[in-house]
TrEMBL record:
Pfam families: Peptidase_S9_N. It comes from Taxus chinensis. SUPFAM superfamilies: Peptidase/esterase 'gauge' domain (SSF50993). GO terms for molecular function: serine-type endopeptidase activity. Gene3D superfamilies: Prolyl oligopeptidase, N-terminal domain (2.130.10.120). This is Peptidase S9A N-terminal domain-containing protein. Residues 3-296 form the Peptidase S9A N-terminal domain. GO terms for cellular component: chloroplast.
Length: 324
């Protein structure tokens, strides 16, 4: 049996002033029946080629499984009164996202909480169930809202590495109907848990736009930021104290970071420092100060690219570039 050979269908592709022809771009379209047919042919060829090793494969799989603990769990992460963690149940392939309430001090309080079922484990997202439904699953990222009510996550079930946004109401267990958005890469919640920010990617899978969505509204999502420089990718995150949303626009050698008040995104963006070739910086907030890990020049002293230092600047004085 000969291996299947994919057809060549050259398509001109241009980026950064360079044009080339990609004969296999058609394979990136997971919805094309021809792609599915070719993958099935490859699978049949692999099964035929490896047929005489089936028993060995089973032996190796059994030995590897015997060396694994029955259930693997991550350390719990505290968010409000809840502890969040992932575990891989015995006999399952994918993880499960769970939470349970943290035990309160005092025997009587802990006892009554237990009787009321407060410490019962809640399964928030089961990769295995999704995998059974679609035959494949890849969860890109997930974020719990600050009020612990919503779970926002991105999901790829097409093997195309293009993720779709879903938001689950943890009170009702239902998926919100107005949140299924394709091409989402990163997520961040506003402090009140009602506004979700997300980045979307272009055809080259480069995240370049930031949108804001009100979870309880049917209004069109608001475009908050767009990066037109194709050498830069955009990422968003909430500061650890949930006071600000940070938007990072990074290339391989430079950074430009913006921030906004997470309680009111209508106040707009503020830039921390203008992009400068060779200068990178990463930002976190604590008690009125931005703490900045950077390799920016110190006065007249030029800092080597690999040498980073920690600086800080008052939020009220961030535009001055007077970092301590």
């Amino acid at each position: 049996m000969k291996p299947p050979i994919p057809r060549k269908d050259p398509v001109a592709v241009s980026a950064h002033g360079i044009t080339w022809h990609d004969p296999y771009q058609w394979i990136s379209n997971a919805k094309d029946p021809a792609v599915s047919h070719h993958l099935q042919q490859e699978n049949r060829y692999t099964e035929t080629f490896m047929a005489d090793t089936v028993e060995l494969q089973q032996q190796l799989e059994a030995e590897m499984l015997s060396r694994m603990t029955p259930e693997v769990s991550t350390p719990p992460e505290r968010r409000g009164p809840w502890l969040y963690y992932q575990c891989i149940p015995e006999g399952k392939e994918y993880p499960v996202l769970c939470r349970r309430r943290e035990r309160r001090d005092g025997f009587a309080i802990a006892f009554f909480d237990y009787v009321r079922g407060h410490y019962r484990e809640e399964v928030l997202l089961d990769w295995n169930e999704i995998g059974v439904q679609f035959g494949y699953v890849n969860v890109g990222t997930y974020q719990i809202s600050p009020d612990q009510r919503y779970l926002a996550y991105t999901l790829d079930v097409s093997r195309g590495e293009r993720f779709t946004l879903f938001v689950k109401d943890l009170w009702t267990g239902s998926i919100l109907s107005n949140t299924n958005i394709e091409g989402v890469v990163s997520l961040a919640w506003g402090k009140d848990g009602k506004i979700l920010l997300y980045t979307v990617s272009d055809d080259l899978h480069r995240p370049f736009k930031v949108f804001g969505k009100r979870i309880d509204s049917e209004y069109e999502d608001m475009l908050l930021f767009e990066e037109n420089d194709k050498s830069c990718c955009v990422d968003i995150a909430s500061t650890k104290d949930c006071q600000f949303i940070i938007i990072n626009s990074n290339s391989r050698t430079s950074s430009e970071v913006y921030f906004m008040d997470s309680t009111d995104i209508a106040t707009g963006l503020q830039r921390i420092r203008r992009r400068e070739t060779g200068v990178q910086y990463f930002v976190e907030h604590h008690h009125g100060f931005f703490y900045i890990l950077t390799n920016a020049p110190l006065g007249d002293i030029k800092v080597v690219m690999e040498n980073y230092y920690l600086a800080r600047c008052s939020v009220c004085n961030i535009g001055s570039n007077e970092w301590q």
